[in-house]
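Researcher: Good morning. I'm working through a list of sequences from a screen, and I'd like to move beyond sequence-only analysis. For each chain I'm collecting a predicted structure so we can compare shapes side by side. This is the next one on the list. No need for commentary yet; just the structure.
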Amino acid sequence: MKKFIFAGALLFLFSASKAQTQKWAIGVKVGEPTAISLRKYGDQNALDISFGTYVGLLKSKKTYKTSNDDLADIGMMFNATYLWYVPMLNERMMAYGGVGVQINSRRYFPNKDKRDVYTSNISTGPSVTAGLEVFFAQKPTSVFLEGGTYLELLPKIFYLNPNLAIGIRHNF
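Model: Good morning. Structure tokens for this chain:
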């Protein structure tokens, strides 16, 4: 059974069909962050805009600024990333990477034992993203896996948050 799955995967990756990248794509990614993304493709580059939420899957929200504080469970995020990509495997797969900026809005609890006392944080900083996207033959759909990091500069200097998500896009 394993050999059959492996052979099917190889056949899928090396088929002669071209990738279905178009001018635009809309997708959903699940992980850290979970978001809706809109992508505008160029010749060898793209602009990716994502709007979603961080839920602390990959990093503990404890000790955000002091030893007894906490970040809220859910916060909103907006990310704009400029990407460069390289087609691979007869244009059925695409590797990409890029840099961007991210803005977050979330609650911060200065004392994690007092959940009724909080402030609303607006944070910002640079982000980096790298990923791999696989296109289905003769269909405008693609699946992707991407990772990276967000480095908060304001208000918490050098607060690092890793990113890892899997998703699906519709290219049009």
